[in-house]
Amino acid sequence: LVFIDLTGIGEPILNPRFLDMVREIKRRGIWIEGFDHFGRWDEAVTEFMLDVKFNRIQPSIDGATKETYEFIRERANFDVVCKNLRYLFQRKKERKCHLPTVDFHYIVMDHNEHEMVPFVRLVRELAGDQRVGCQFTEVLREFPGIKARKVPITDRHIAEASAEARRQGVQLWFNRNSEGRPKADMRQCSAYLMPFTFVTGDVVPCCAMNEAGDRKWQIDRSMGNVFKQ
Fold it and tell me: Are 7 and 34 in contact (CB under 8 A)?
């Protein structure tokens, strides 16, 4: 094992032993990354992550303004999120820490597609003069119960956001739905190098399978269970 992402499905810091897991992973010399919405990633968590040299964090932020962000993420506080992120960048600079690498993650949907360019500016403002990146990802599937509506990341979106990223010195990636576009050869797929493990121990090839929301289907077709074999 050389790489692990402890994100799971949801907010990892809700797990009362999350920091213990991180400490053990780093003790073993394993490269670790994760996603976090930064509502609970407070000053104490920042100091811990800098101490253990957490490798990469992807703040999951889906709006460039308080109005949009708090509409999408109910009961969240945009001001607290920004405060926690500023503290992370501030302490990285003061402690002369290159880690964790920070790459924001923004899910594009009908409620926030108009804020992609402003978000690039927000990312730069939060990071100050430090290196920072951002990935824009489409809602890949619509399913019952979500308020978000799927919209494509268009060539216009890419051109406008990329132009702003060049002005701001922000690295940018786009994760678009592959339906209707040529797919890479299966032998080039990284899924089998990055299997997804459920808390039950069941192992499925790729986190993309989670989008269907059918856990029984996934477990019935799993590659096995780490607690049993």
Answer: yes
